TrEMBL record:
Gene Ontology terms, MF aspect: transmembrane transporter activity
Full protein name: Urea ABC transporter permease subunit UrtB
Gene Ontology, cellular component aspect: plasma membrane
SUPFAM superfamilies named in the record: ARM repeat
Organism: marine sediment metagenome
Gene Ontology biological process terms, A to Z: amino acid transport
Length: 552
């Protein structure tokens, strides 16, 4: 009997457990299904007849009637209201109505379920609010700035927009959208009739210190009469201008860092080739150019045959660029260069001829015009560590990729047996040959490695600029400068030369122009080499009883 009761109790407990578990699963599913709508600013519920009535009012001849309909449709929202407003915008001729339509569409966008659409709506409302910020109060007709040619904005529409902004701010979850909504509200507050409200808005913009708001603050300061508000606006403008200078400086240094990374990636192969073989490869820039076109071809193949995974084309382009250009470099060394050792002038002419052949071949096949290579989707966008400072993912990727490649090359040179052979040939070719090292094999591998690095650098360069047959010529002179500055065959010196030249170019181009900046940078390089001919990595040569040793 006791066992029977125990089984009944156990069965009842299991049933209760399953019931509670089923309820929890049901609640979870409901929450999961409603989660995508958590950020939505819901539109007002109206009947279909009422919506059709307001849409029909848009065709009324009287501007005031059309304006009233626009305001009501902005309150209602929805795709039908948006389509009707877009149709009216295409046909409308009155500037006032056009401005009202745009403001209504921005308000509807603020109610979207899509985050990017809400962000666009908040930005557009903020831009228009900045234009209206110098107005006083909500009473009567409100006139916009000269930018909008004295457009009259209905006060009820402005009130509706402000109410929508406050409502959206309360339920918005995305930080970026929320910030833009708050910014739009504060821009409206700059035009409030209460001096205290205007002062608080000015203090807000002073704390945010976004350079994009400097024009809004300048207009508000120009028309402001209250001394306390003027003081707050002046302080805000000063903060914004200071933050703008800091952001510009950091951005310029970051851009210089990116270009320096590219210089390093291209010059690294050149430094290795020249250091080991003593060969000045004038076709090195064309190997970089071929890497650009490998990226273009890879993107085209994925766009035609693998559209669902188009963003992954970069995973094919990088290794393919290295393999293709390295193989071409190996063939060039085996077929041409190895017959011209100790004949530097002939080597220069031969590699120059190869560069012309490659340029013309690309020009015949792809055309003479520059082509833009679409970036992978995962490299679009960026991060904003400071207000006014945007760091694109493409440039961050290039810097990170360069660090990885330089680390790998350093490991190859200083942590592997083959790297030891390369350094031995670099220091004393004859002695290395006597010790059984195959210098011909080292030469072929080194030239292939240098060419492959140039191809990979070109693949990355396609992220920043368009691709053309003359792309390599735009960078080859700078890369030779990097090699000379760093010291022949010195990895650490090449790094110093690349970042020294890249940052100098970036700073000088900012204060002058690209052409003048580059010319001044070259003059500084010449002056530097006058006092330090061996570059950053000093190399001393000592001869002792026919044995040459190099230390640096």
């Amino acid at each position: 009997m006791f066992i029977l009761n125990l089984n009944k109790n156990k069965s009842a407990l299991l049933n209760q457990f399953y019931l509670n578990f089923s309820k929890q699963i049901a609640i979870f599913l409901i929450i999961f299904l409603l989660l995508p709508f958590a950020n939505v600013v819901y539109s007002e519920t109206v009947s279909e007849e009422e919506l059709d009535y307001y849409v029909s009012m848009l065709s009324n001849e009287r501007a005031k009637v059309r304006k009233s309909a626009i305001i009501e449709l902005a309150k209602i929202g929805g795709s039908k209201a948006e389509d009707a407003l877009n149709d009216l915008w295409n046909d409308e001729m009155v500037e006032d109505i056009i401005f009202a339509i745009e403001l209504a569409l921005d308000t509807i966008h603020l109610k979207s379920t899509d985050t990017s659409t809400r962000l666009i709506g908040a930005k557009e409302i903020g831009a228009k609010a900045g234009t209206l910020s110098a107005t006083s109060g909500l009473e009567g007709e409100i006139q916009a700035e000269e930018l909008f040619q004295q457009i009259v904005v209905d006060p009820s529409q402005k009130r509706n927009v402000i109410d929508t902004l406050h409502h959206a701010l309360e339920i918005e979850k995305n930080k970026k959208v929320k910030h833009k909504i708050e910014e739009a509200i504060q821009k409206f507050r700059l035009g409030d009739s209460d001096a205290k409200v205007r002062r608080e808005a000015a203090e807000y913009f002073g704390e945010v210190a976004d350079p994009d708001n400097v024009m809004v603050l300048g207009r508000a300061l120009y028309k402001e009469k209250d001394e306390e508000v003027r003081a707050a606006l002046e302080k805000a403008v000063a903060n914004v201008e200071w933050n703008e200078q800091v952001a510009i400086t950091l951005k310029q240094l970051f851009n210089g860092f990116t270009i320096s990374s590219q210089y390093l990636l291209i010059a690294l192969g050149l430094a290795i080739t020249f250091g080991v073989m003593g060969v000045i490869n004038l076709a090195h820039g064309e190997f970089m150019m071929l890497g650009c076109y490998v990226a273009l071809v890879s993107q085209s193949i994925f766009a035609s045959y693998f559209q669902p995974v188009l963003g992954l084309y970069w995973a094919l382009a990088i290794p393919l660029a290295f393999i293709f250009t390295a193989g071409l470099g190996w063939g060039l060394e085996r077929g041409v260069i190895r017959f011209l050792y100790k004949r530097p002038l002939d080597t220069l002419l031969a590699t120059w001829g190869v560069s012309l052949i490659l340029q013309q071949a690309v020009r015949n096949y792809f055309g003479a015009n520059n082509i833009d290579v679409p970036s992978p989707s995962w490299l679009l966008g960026g991060i904003d560590p400071l207000v006014g400072l945007h760091l694109p993912f493409k440039r961050l990727y290039i810097i990170g990729f360069t660090i990885c490649v330089v680390t790998a090359v350093y490991w190859l040179f200083y942590r592997t047996r083959f790297g030891l052979k390369i350094r031995a040939v670099m220091q004393n070719r004859n002695m290395a040959n006597c010790l059984g090292i195959s210098t011909q094999r080292v030469n072929a591998f080194t030239f292939a490695l240098g060419s492959g690095l140039a191809g990979v650098a070109g693949c990355n360069m396609s992220l920043l600029s368009s691709v053309g047959p003359s792309t390599g010529q735009n960078y080859i002179v700078d890369c030779f400068m990097v090699v000379v500055l760093g010291g022949v065959g010195k990895i650490v010196g090449t790094i110093a030369g690349a970042f020294g030249l890249g940052e100098t170019n970036a700073i000088l181009e900012f204060f002058t122009s690209p052409n003048i900046g580059k010319a001044v940078a070259f003059i500084l390089v010449i002056i530097f080499l006058r006092f330090r001919p061996t570059g950053f990595s000093a190399t001393s040569v000592r001869e002792d009883k026919g044995i040459v040793s190099i230390t640096g």
